[in-house]
Amino acid sequence: MELRKSFSIRGTLFFLYFSFLLIWLAVGLSPAPVEATKYEISSELSVPSISLTSDVTSLKLKHGELETPDTIVGSFSWAKNKTFLIGHASTVFKNLKNVKIGDEIIYDYTTFVVQEIKTLKKAEISMNELLEESEVETLVVMTCAGESLPGGDATHRLIITATKKP
Questions:
Q1: Nearest by Cα to 40 from 66, 82, 72
Q2: Which of 58, 125, 133, 145 is most exposed by smallest CB count within 10 Å?
Q3: Counting Cβ atoms within 10 Å, is residue 61 exposed (0-12), middle (13-18) or buried (19+)?
Q4: For residue 100, what is the DSSP state?
Q5: CA distances from 118 to 5, 19, 43, 163 (A)
Q6: What's the CA gap between 77 and 49, in Å, rounded?
Q7: Rounded distance, CA 81 to CA 129, Å?
Q8: CA nearest 83: which of 138, 149, 31, 2?
Q9: Domain coordinates in residue numbering, the chain
């Protein structure tokens, strides 16, 4: 009788231990909830040739840098006739590499035509040149390209320049 009682207590403790272990593993290994970032939407971007449509939010400089939104396009402008658009190559701009010269980009209800496409090393880019004033209304669209670096960065940038369609 003593042996049966001891076995029953051990069995119950064993069962409880493994039940709590399974619950702890299930809760501990489940992905953390992701809180969606709310952006103030200022416009919309469309690139019909790659079936891209995205909301656009206006960006502000923070400590000399622009923070790229996770899943939509960000816009920034500081000079006359020049708008700079950025987005992640892993999300909103995943097909941007398929854009060709002559393709149309529709931004803020205005149609632009792609004039130039280039890929530059990150270190070779002059943001002052990219953002400088233009004589005609111009979009500069930029995203990561090249090899991946730690922290979600990349070695190069794909830069597309488009001017307002006459």
A1: 72
A2: 133
A3: exposed
A4: -
A5: 78, 58, 25, 15
A6: 25
A7: 13
A8: 138
A9: 1-33, 41-164
How confident is the model over 62-71, as pLDDT tens digits? 888 888 898 9
Percent of the chain with pLDDT over 90: 62
**Strand blocks (E) in the chain:** 41-47, 52-58, 73-76, 82-86, 104-107, 110-121, 138-148, 154-164
Q: Is 106 helix (H, G, I), strand (E, B) or coil?
A: strand
Both tokens of 58, joined, read 């206006």
pTM to 2 decimal places? 0.76
For 41-164, CATH number? 2.40.260.10
